[in-house]
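Document type: protein sequence-to-structure record

Subject area: structural biology

Format: plain text, a pair of labelled lines:
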Amino acid sequence: MEGKRGMNRSLWLLTIAATILLILVSLYYPYSRRAESGIFLPTDCSNNSDCFIEQANACKPATTILDIGNLGLRYESMEGCRFRKTITRVGTEEPEEMRLLLENRSVECDYETGKFDSRLVFNLTLGLENCSGQLRYRLQTIQDAYHARLERARQSKEVFEEPIVNASEIS
């Protein structure tokens, strides 16, 4: 019995040591070697949109975080020519309803190698034709409501100051 316990403990310690060794090797294994072997970690483009667009055009994994106006945005390029845009922060100067509608919502888009639409990075609503997700629906609803209100204001020459869209109108 004592021998089995010692063997089980040795096996457990060996498993832990192998796991730690594997983690350490993966951390120090040069990126170029990972690329040659087909193991890709996303390129961290920090807040460099040019770096991100270049990686996305090549359908290589990359991430960047940008602040555009009062929005915090996280962009991810994934293998298979897939793109994800997530609104991580809506400024406090925006109505609480708008923050609840948009924060932590994402849209995902498919594209072809060399044909990444940079409007997805520089504009909140343009380039979403090949995209899906809750964020696309919510942005489209807000945009449609804004244009409808703007058209009504033009026709009646009213100036509107109340919210363009109610949170209850968008689920």
